[in-house]
Design a protein that fits this description.
Order of helices and strands of chain A: HHHHH
Radius of gyration of chain A: 26 Å
Number of strands of chain A: 0
Helix content of chain B: over 70%
Number of domains of chain A: 2
Shape of chain B: globular
Number of helices of chain A: 5
Order of helices and strands of chain B: HHHHHH
Oligomer: heterodimer
Strand content of chain A: under 5%
Chain lengths: 143, 100
């Protein structure tokens, strides 16, 4: 009786272990199957508008990353001062702060975009980006 | 978890980044109303990676990377985006005025 019951339990365990793997793999296959046809449609659609989300993401990421990577002296000093304790806590705190500031910036930007005409928005966004560029050049010149 | 240190670093970074270059850039880039989510994820990912590299390398970031050159490249990139918006965008802004 004991010998018989043991394999039943084992097979039961192995079956339940296999099932999540199977569903996970089918889900990923499904996701691939769903995403693949959508991508060409999205890129064809966005050629009419200026910049697909992917292009916007990439340009935003690259420019802000390059601007910030040289600008982290204050953060690194903060980290060095906390190095004796726990740098990960400092990283968590600053990560939460950075996500919050970029969320606030994007929310403010999208709110502004509903208030003014597209032409005025393009002009003011261009002037703001020129201002950011000038600030960066100033930083470079200052060393 | 050291909640005091967590709160301190949050407040310090939050105040120092509020109204800083990257937030102005996020406002300007999302101000066109299109793909706001892409701007948010792009800027958040860039900031997280930059601060993560800062956390890994500590004070050595400035020695390992040519940060002035990278900053100059970023400045040129923002200038190109600005010039494109200011001078080479007449047809597209007409387009977006016609659609609504």
């Amino acid at each position: 009786m004991k010998l018989d019951s043991a394999p039943v339990i084992l097979t039961g365990v192995s079956a339940s272990e296999n099932q999540p793997e199977l569903t996970a793999s089918t889900e990923s296959r499904l996701a691939n199957a769903i995403f693949e046809p959508i991508q060409p449609v999205a890129s064809a659609d966005s050629q009419k508008k200026q910049g697909s989300p992917l292009i916007v993401f990439t340009t935003t990421f690259i420019t802000i990353f390059l601007a910030e990577i040289g600008d982290k002296t204050q953060l690194s000093t903060l980290l060095m001062s906390a190095e004796s304790h726990s740098p990960w806590v400092v990283f968590l705190g600053s990560a939460a702060a950075l996500i919050t500031t970029s969320l606030l910036g994007v929310l403010l930007g999208s709110w502004i975009s509903k208030q003014f005409s597209p032409k005025a928005l393009d002009k003011s966004a261009g002037v703001m980006l020129l201002f950011v560029s000038a600030m960066l050049f100033w930083d470079v010149l200052q060393g | 978890m050291d909640w005091h240190l967590l709160g301190l670093s949050f407040v310090t970074v939050f105040i120092s980044e509020l109204g800083d270059k990257s937030q102005l850039a996020a406002i300007a880039l999302s101000g066109r109303g299109q793909s706001v989510r892409a701007v948010f994820f792009g800027s958040a990912a860039a900031l997280l990676l930059a601060s993560f590299l800062g956390a890994l390398a500590g004070g050595a970031v400035a020695e390992v990377l040519p940060t002035r050159l990278l900053k100059a490249i970023a400045a040129v990139g923002f200038a190109v985006l600005a010039v494109r918006l200011l001078f080479f965008n007449n047809e597209e802004s007409l387009d977006s005025e016609q659609t609504p």
